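We give the entry.
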Amino acid sequence: MAEAIEIRSEDGLERQLVTFYLGNDEFGVDIMHVREIIRLTEVTHIPQAPSYVEGVCNLRGSILPIIDGRARLGMEIRQRDERTRVLVLDVNGTVTGIVVDRVSEVLRVSHADIEAPPAVIQDMNVDFLSGMVKLNAGKRIIMALNLSSIVTVRQIEEIKQEALTMAAVKVDSIVKAELEEDQLVTFLLGREEYAFDIMHVKEIIRVEQITAVPNVAAYIEGVVAIRNQLLPIINMRMFFGLETITMNDQARIIIVDLGRMSVGFRVDKVSEVISISRTVIEPPPLVFSAEEADQIRGVAKLNDGKRLLMCLNANKLLPAAVVQSLLCDDTATEESVAVEQNNSIIAEEQLVTFKLGNEEFGIKITDVQEINRMTPVTHMPNAPVYIEGLVNLRGNIIPALNLRRRFGLAERQRDDATRIIIVDVGSRKTGVVVDAVSEVLRFESSLVEETPQLASENLDSKYISGVAKLNGGKRMVMIIDLAEVLRIGA
């Protein structure tokens, strides 16, 4: 599936680059030339084409010439993997694909950070570069490509013409095979990967509060209310006889249209939406019973068989008798759910929990906007010691608060687990730097107690609004009073 990129116009002072890697070298192309990013698909080779031209592929009915980025820049050829991507570029109205090792990010850079390329670059034609972007005081260098030199329009048009004049039967068979694709929504149950045809998938939601319903099959967890409609929820682990696990924040409900009704299937994690050729889907193995084989459309073999997708028949997954019972019990279910909900309204707390050393803290999820990896910080003179500086959040400059310093805790070295939690309190966004984020936690409000006088060693209790005692008191989570923490000068 194409990975969407939001294209914005330049403001004259900045450029937006799509950055990618070839080996250890980072390159960038102007986002205005990038149409989309796709996975590498089957390529048809063109005779007598330049060595760096891999061939052509079919992109939704159009011929797309494919250039090997490594070969074009004179780099050593390497084996492709799951991260390999094709940048679909539009240069002066000519569309070309360039194969890269992996895509990094969309980056906004100032023209002041772009320097002219040096006169000589080892093993690379300097004409291929339009500039060198130096970031982080020169520690990060991105080579901006001159696409007009790399993608010669005349040559690309000749390649497309050559593809069109190839043997008609061969071209027609290639186009037909590539157009006969299915889009699948893939998901995980443990380590196994399954898929629904996207045509049957209505939406994907986070797991809501599921209300149990009596006298139904064990794998029917209950129902949830979605836009005033009650949907039965199937626990896919129980349905397939797998071991049940504790639900985490990655769990999702895939709402599937079964024709006569819609049903939600709870899965461990939704992976991606992927386009695959129907030719890679093989019939179910003979080891399945007739009923099981009816539930499985087939097995898709990807990456030379290293990745297997169990493709499910959505409209045949549930036994007909179960679907009929769900249809007949719909009214009774609504009445029982209404009674159940009225009798079981329990005040709950939902926190994003994180660590500072060995202590665990929580912030109410309603105050959390997002969680990011640690980003470069611009230091501010004369700021309070606990204000680490300023960070750039997609063009918005926000302050970054070092929570260790705020709480008077010892400094520690940052690592890959360090995160910055973006909070929004009183329409004011702030980044809060923490050692590591744990999870999103939901529990009854009755488990929260008032803050003791000494909540933690060397920690002022005014910063804590309460303490959640979980697992019979074995786990203590201190709930942050964000208004007090963010109060400047306090």
Remarks:
- Residues 14-178 form a domain with the OB fold (Dihydrolipoamide Acetyltransferase, E2P) fold (CATH 2.40.50.180).
